[in-house]
């Protein structure tokens, strides 16, 4: 059976203008080369209708949980919950993932947070047991490729990293404990940017063999 790889990017820039996307491209093209029979889906969150968990969506959930059907929802609710379920099913069906984004103000872009809110659903990607929550996505792998102006992978900067640490915690919560990290960092510090990009691409390509 062909494996499914889901490449999730969250960057509004063109690929040629984005360090995270350029490194991500190096990774996914090498992945395709080494795994020609795998199904690769690229999901650009800035070009996707990612539903936010607002009052309208929660009202729709409530109607469905109380015995209602899709016919009880208004048109906008049906569309948003339909989009949400489609994204969730796509995520659940994948065997491995790449998350590619810039760090914005020490965290992730809002649309990536909205996507995480979509894929973290009790009874789908995790469930509660008498011993606490348990992830249902065990055995899957992911890589996180993130660009940042400063350096946050060292001890001095790690306390300000609410981006990679958050994603690592989220994925671990649903059972994805195998997460590789490719930081493309220090690009606003007057360092050798071509060298930073080159080393990040090399590291990303090295990780392909682990998928």
Automatic annotation (TrEMBL):
<feature type="binding site">
    <location>
        <begin position="103"/>
        <end position="106"/>
    </location>
    <ligand>
        <name>FMN</name>
    </ligand>
</feature>
<dbReference type="InterPro" id="IPR023048">
    <property type="entry name" value="NADH:quinone_OxRdtase_FMN_depd"/>
</dbReference>
<dbReference type="GO" id="GO:0010181">
    <property type="term" value="F:FMN binding"/>
</dbReference>
<dbReference type="GO" id="GO:0016652">
    <property type="term" value="F:oxidoreductase activity, acting on NAD(P)H as acceptor"/>
</dbReference>
<comment type="function">
    <text>Also exhibits azoreductase activity. Catalyzes the reductive cleavage of the azo bond in aromatic azo compounds to the corresponding amines.</text>
</comment>
<comment type="subunit">
    <text>Homodimer.</text>
</comment>
<comment type="function">
    <text>Quinone reductase that provides resistance to thiol-specific stress caused by electrophilic quinones.</text>
</comment>
<comment type="similarity">
    <text>Belongs to the azoreductase type 1 family.</text>
</comment>
<protein>
    <recommendedName>
        <fullName>FMN dependent NADH:quinone oxidoreductase</fullName>
        <ecNumber>1.6.5.-</ecNumber>
        <ecNumber>1.7.1.17</ecNumber>
    </recommendedName>
</protein>
<keyword id="KW-0560">Oxidoreductase</keyword>
<dbReference type="InterPro" id="IPR029039">
    <property type="entry name" value="Flavoprotein-like_sf"/>
</dbReference>
<dbReference type="Pfam" id="PF02525">
    <property type="entry name" value="Flavodoxin_2"/>
</dbReference>
<feature type="binding site">
    <location>
        <begin position="18"/>
        <end position="20"/>
    </location>
    <ligand>
        <name>FMN</name>
    </ligand>
</feature>
<dbReference type="InterPro" id="IPR003680">
    <property type="entry name" value="Flavodoxin_fold"/>
</dbReference>
<keyword id="KW-0520">NAD</keyword>
<keyword id="KW-0285">Flavoprotein</keyword>
<feature type="domain" description="Flavodoxin-like fold">
    <location>
        <begin position="3"/>
        <end position="198"/>
    </location>
</feature>
<dbReference type="InterPro" id="IPR050104">
    <property type="entry name" value="FMN-dep_NADH:Q_OxRdtase_AzoR1"/>
</dbReference>
<keyword id="KW-0288">FMN</keyword>
<dbReference type="GO" id="GO:0016655">
    <property type="term" value="F:oxidoreductase activity, acting on NAD(P)H, quinone or similar compound as acceptor"/>
</dbReference>
<dbReference type="GO" id="GO:0009055">
    <property type="term" value="F:electron transfer activity"/>
</dbReference>
């Amino acid at each position: 059976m062909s494996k499914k790889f889901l490449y999730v990017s969250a960057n509004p820039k063109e690929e040629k203008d984005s360090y995270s996307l350029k490194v991500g491209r190096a990774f996914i093209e090498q992945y395709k080369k080494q795994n020609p029979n795998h199904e690769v889906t690229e999901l650009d969150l800035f070009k996707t209708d990612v539903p936010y968990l607002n009052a309208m969506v929660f009202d729709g959930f409530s109607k469905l949980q109380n015995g209602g059907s899709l016919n009880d929802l208004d048109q906008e609710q049906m569309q948003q919950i339909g989009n949400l379920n489609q994204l969730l099913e796509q995520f659940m069906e994948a065997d491995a993932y790449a998350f590619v984004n810039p760090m914005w103000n020490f965290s992730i872009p809002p649309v990536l947070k909205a996507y995480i809110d979509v894929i973290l659903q009790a009874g789908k990607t995790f469930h509660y047991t008498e011993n606490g929550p348990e992830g249902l996505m065990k055995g899957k792998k992911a890589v996180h490729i993130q660009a940042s102006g400063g350096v946050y992978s060292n001890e001095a900067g790690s306390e300000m990293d609410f981006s990679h640490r958050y994603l690592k915690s989220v994925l671990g919560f649903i059972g994805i404990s195998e997460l590789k990290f490719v930081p493309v960092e220090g690009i606003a510090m007057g360092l050798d940017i071509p060298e930073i990009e080159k080393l990040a691409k090399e590291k990303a390509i090295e990780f392909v063999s682990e998928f």
